[in-house]
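Data card: per-record layout.
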Amino acid sequence: MQGGEDDVSYVNNSDRQALAITLSKPILISSLQTIKLFSTNSPIRITDLGCAAGSNTFTTVDTVVETLRRRYTAVYGGGSLPEIEAFFSDLPSNDFNLLFKLLTEKRRVDSPAKYFAGGVPGSFYDRLFPRGTIHVAVSLSALHWLSQYMQSDHDLENFLKCRKEEIVNGGVLFVLMGGRPSGSCSQFGDQGTRAKHPFTITMEQAWQDLLDEGLIDEETRDGFNIPAYMRSPEEVAAGIDRISGFKIEKMEYMKVVEHSDEKKEEWKKDPVSYGRARTNVVQAAIRPMVEAYLGPDLSDKLFKRYENRVSTNREFLHKTCFYGIVVFSAIRI
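The structure for this 333-residue chain is written out next.
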């Protein structure tokens, strides 16, 4: 993800992820209502895996903390609440400086702090914590990103094996990831989704523009792959069955509409602003990968072509664009 706080940063282009979190919040709260209540003498440990940086980073952890505090208060009374530790984990390239800057600002408002916080750099496809130390693990809009292109099953199994070691018996694993509906035979099997979403087609056209202008060759165009895979609920359930150690409490496929009708009407009057906003969202997600592949100059040109394409194609503003997510909660058994 693109760090910093400028127009193309993740922190300023994560509204879609925020909506997905809001839609899935009832599943998270329901899973926490059934979690085993652990001793109040030891800290409760929460981790956000693939935390990025921004308001979304804290929203779900706050939900977990508040839900657990209510449960413990109801059972033990207000004087026996356990201390809570929250570990924010992401790749070392994540903007941890921004994350803790925002956390410090948040704590000035929330004082006294509701939990102790720490950062854990590393890949969630590896072990990050000692065995049996995590009570609640959440991962939001991250698990569809692969460690390497076409490693979907391998990566899912590694993720689950690591969490199986780290999460205590009775603990909760909650995951929200990009996904596709049940019954679709492959990532691109749902042609309706592909046709309705502007990213796929328009980005392909932008790459072709660079090729047509002689700025890149076919090998360069064809050699770039985004290491992401949108799993179906069946694929996720099969992975959990293969690893064992978890009982699925709830799993759903949901559609997240990208823009409100009001926003679309606003952009119809100013398609240039739509093109710029759409491009900022795309850059926030994939600019670091593109820049590592093409370099900064060609990356600027690619995203400019993309912006021009989106700005001049009014068809997208007359479609209901959405993307799919798979959400599940599971109990460690």
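Known properties of this structure: Residues 160 and 203 are 32 Å apart (CA to CA). Residues 192-196 have pLDDT under 50 and may be disordered.

See the next section for split statistics.
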